[in-house]
Structures are given as structure tokens and as C-alpha cells.
């Protein structure tokens, strides 16, 4: 389904239903500044817990802006 600015209101109930029925939701966001950050290996090590790894990787990107008008627009519901 192609959801655009012009048909957004008409599609919204279908999107809500799909989200309610989904077992998994993935959103592909395009963000500014991601490639400018430090490498994963520079921030983490093999002994980090998943929580520690998440905190370390999230910190440099707290001020990154989501770019709403990009080529890749994805919402995958499974």
C-alpha cells in the first residue's frame, strides 16, 4: 500500500489494523549524521551486555534528526 500525504487519512485505519495484527513491526528510518559517528568497534567490546551496548551506541546519536522525505520509505508488518 502506498501511503501519501493525499491519502493518509483514508489509509490510517488500515495501518492501525495491520499494526494490531502484526507479530513484528519494523520501521526503516533515514537519519542525518549517522555516518559521522564513531564506529561500533570503537564504542563497544565483546564483554558488553546488550543493555550496555545499546546505551553506548545510542549516546552519539541522541541529537540526530529523522529525515521524513527520503527515497527509502518503509513500514514492514509481519
Description:
By secondary structure, the chain is an alpha+beta fold. It is 35% helix and 10% strand. The chain has one domain. It has helices at residues 8-21, 40-43, 50-58; strands spanning 25-28, 74-77. The radius of gyration is 17 Å and the shape is elongated.
Q: Which band does the percent of strand residues land in?
A: 5-15%
Report Rg: 17 Å
Number of helices: 3
- Uncertain segments: none
Distance between the termini: 14 Å
The gross shape turns out to be elongated
Trace the largest sheet across and list its strands.
Answer: 1-2
Number of strands: 2
What about the largest sheet?
Answer: 2 strands, antiparallel
Number of domains: 1
* Arithmetic mean pLDDT: 74
Order of helices and strands: HEHHE
Structural class: alpha+beta
**Portion in helices:** 25-40%
Pfam families: CAF1
Family: Belongs to the CAF1 family.
GO molecular function: nucleic acid binding
InterPro entries: CAF1_poly(A)_ribonucleases, RNase_CAF1, RNaseH-like_sf, RNaseH_sf
Amino acid at each position: 500500500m502506498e501511503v501519501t500525504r493525499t491519502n493518509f487519512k483514508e489509509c490510517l485505519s488500515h495501518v492501525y489494523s495491520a499494526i494490531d495484527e502484526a507479530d513484528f513491526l519494523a520501521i526503516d528510518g533515514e537519519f542525518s549524521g549517522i555516518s559521522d559517528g564513531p564506529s561500533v568497534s570503537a564504542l563497544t567490546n565483546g564483554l558488553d551486555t546488550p543493555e550496555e551496548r545499546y546505551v553506548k551506541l545510542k549516546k552519539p546519536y541522541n541529537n540526530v534528526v529523522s529525515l521524513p522525505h527520503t527515497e527509502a520509505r518503509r513500514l514492514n508488518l509481519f
